[in-house]
Specification:
This protein has a single domain, classed as Ribosomal protein L5 (50s Ribosomal Protein L5, Chain: A), CATH 3.30.1440. It is 31% helix and 25% strand. A hairpin with a 2-residue loop joins strand 2 and strand 3. Helix 3 packs antiparallel against helix 5. The chain is globular and about 40 Å long. The C terminus is likely disordered.
């Protein structure tokens, strides 16, 4: 993805029966290794970043787990103007697995909600989900 400008907010509600540190760990597992700020409020944890580098782990797992087509369908329905809203299963994220869900009901403890504001949400979806076609070496031109 060439245009790295984006505003990313990952929000997770924290119920009174949950350990806020575990919720924070789940959120960190979604964003992976990138720069972000953490804000702990009563009842929620919020991570903020700018730059698509924070979505590299999502990109890699969608590719490695062979779920790009299903994720693409969900993401295409999640665009509103310049905002892409992605829901992740919190329990899966806690153990390091990126699993998108289409509704909050699919994540029993409530989803992790990522809001991405960018000039090109379609381009971000393409980067996250499209298959790259590579010409086989035997047919590659010198």
């Amino acid at each position: 993805m060439k245009d790295d400008s984006a505003r990313i907010t990952l929000n997770a509600g924290v119920s009174s029966s949950e350990d806020p540190e575990k919720v924070l760990q789940a959120a960190r597992n979604v964003l992976g290794e990138c720069n972000y700020s953490v804000q702990k409020n009563e009842g929620s944890v919020v991570l903020r970043s700018s730059g698509l580098r924070c979505l590299q782990k999502v990109h890699d797992q969608l590719r490695d787990r062979h779920v790009r087509d299903a994720a693409r369908r969900i993401l295409l329905r999640s665009v509103d103007g310049d905002t892409l809203r992605i829901l992740f299963n919190r329990q899966a994220a806690f153990v390091g697995v990126i699993a998108t869900v289409s509704s909050a009901e699919e994540s029993p403890l409530g989803p992790l909600v990522l809001e991405l504001v960018t000039r090109d949400p379609q381009g971000v979806i393409d980067w996250l989900t499209l298959y790259q076609t590579v010409e086989p070496q035997s047919q590659a031109r010198p």
